[in-house]
Design goal:
429 residues; Rossmann fold; 2 domains; seven-stranded mixed sheet; 17 helices; 44% helix; 16% strand
Length: 429
């Protein structure tokens, strides 16, 4: 497919570095597909009640005055990108500044909640035939996974510190709740909410003084720190050199260097026997073909009578099956090689490939929506600091879209997050 240079028509007149962003700097030359995309957008706008505004204020289709607004600054480029590359093109068009909205999460929530309904459930399987396929270099082999992890987590510790709380915890928090059960979230409550989440996982795994603990996926070390504070001895695994360095500094500063070992190690190479195995939002990066390997490793490393506590982002099973072999904007730009499992997929994999069983679970998706809101608000409010770290406007728009897209997934119910307890079949609970 031929490409044409992207016109500088965004509201911010983005200057796109073609060496860094080749697919953002060019627009697919796909006029026919662009016309089809325009017709589909017009139909979707009517069905979903989204107000699609064209340059000059004209509407693509009639919509209620109070509807969510999608404002196209460069309609032709938007249509061509979406027509050629679907949702990848939709995201790339936002990165290029070709569309915007006063309420990013509001628009994305409508799309996440209602857009799939425009395709009948019986036809969802057709997605595998027209959607882009995940490239082989992203699949979760030992050779690829280190590169996949580095692409996200080795960006810059300073970047993550700009929007995370002081615990440097990059996963869903657990807030206290009001009488209606809704999370009570504000910037000042995030640090405590992250520690509450970690403590719940440690309690679930029954981590105490003398426990032998394995953590798969170190992050920046907060879970290992809190386990060590209980008197446990911890081995924690990461593939990110940036995370390893900062986690080791934090652990040493807290005085737990003699209780915690941070290993740069693929989970498949882990050795030992542990009373508690914990992993927070790690299974999402494993890849569907390697889920059996992942859970067999957990099974192999667990001591008799031990407990496994996981935190996992999940999606509905039918949507997982429809997207399992496709290539998404998130995979291309944010998390190479990842796939969110369904709860059914976790249960089936554990049952078929291990001696483990799922004995308890708890979902808390609304808490992740609030966690992401706080991250997004802090990230966007620190745009100058992000720029000072060397990240250009295309990156900042990409990261804003990623955080907003993820938040919308939880607000719409398309995504959920679970605490899961696995024990060995036959062991006392």
């Amino acid at each position: 497919m031929t490409q044409t240079a992207a016109p500088a028509t965004s509201p911010d007149r983005l200057r796109v570095d073609a060496r860094s962003w080749p697919d953002i700097a060019t627009v697919p030359h796909s006029p026919l597909r662009g016309r089809v995309a325009r017709l589909l957008l017009k139909r979707a706008a009517r069905r979903l009640g989204v107000r699609v505004e064209l340059p000059g204020g004209e509407l693509l289709a009639d919509a209620p005055a109070a509807a969510q607004i999608l404002r196209l600054h460069d309609p032709e480029s938007f249509y061509r990108r979406v027509g050629a590359d679907g949702l990848i093109g939709f995201g790339e068009s936002y990165q290029a500044g070709e569309w915007d909205t006063p309420d990013l999460v509001g628009v994305l929530t409508v799309l996440a909640r209602d857009l799939p309904a425009l395709v009948p459930a019986r036809l969802q399987w057709l997605r595998r035939w027209y959607a882009a396929r995940q490239p082989p270099e992203q699949q979760g082999t030992p050779e690829n996974v280190r590169r996949n992890i580095a692409a996200h987590y080795d960006l810059s510790n300073d970047l993550f510190a700009l929007f995370l709380d002081p615990t440097m915890t990059y996963s869903a928090a657990v807030f206290s709740t009001g009488e209606d059960g809704a999370p009570i979230a504000s910037p000042g409550l995030l640090e405590a909410a992250q520690r509450r989440k970690i403590d719940r996982l440690l309690d679930l795994a029954q981590v105490r003084g003398g426990s032998r603990v394995l953590e798969i996926g170190t992050g920046w070390g907060e879970l290992a720190l809190r386990a060590a504070a209980r008197g446990a001895r911890v081995v924690t695994l990461t593939l990110s050199t940036e995370q390893q360095a900062l986690a080791e500094r934090r652990i040493a500063a807290a005085g737990y260097g003699d209780r915690v070992e941070v290993r740069l190690c693929d989970y498949r190479s882990a050795t030992g026997e542990y009373d508690a195995v914990l992993s927070v939002e790690m299974v999402e990066a494993v890849g569907r073909d390697h889920w059996p390997d992942y859970f067999r490793v957990l099974d192999r490393l667990l001591a008799p009578g031990g407990r496994i506590a996981l935190q996992a982002i999940t999606m509905p099973h039918q949507r997982m099956l429809a997207s399992a072999r496709t290539f998404t904007w998130i995979q291309k730009y944010i998390f190479p090689g990842g796939l969110l499992p369904s709860l059914q997929a976790v249960e089936e994999t554990v049952s078929e490939h291990t001696t483990l069983e799922l004995t308890w679970r708890q979902s808390f998706g609304p808490h992740y929506a609030e966690t992401l809101r706080l991250w997004r608000e802090r990230f966007t409010s620190r745009a100058r600091a992000v720029e000072d770290l060397g990240f250009d406007p295309v990156f900042r728009r990409m990261w804003t879209l990623y955080l907003g897209y993820s938040e919308a997934g939880f607000r719409s119910g398309y995504l959920d997050v679970q605490h899961l307890l696995l024990t060995r079949r036959g062991d006392p609970r």
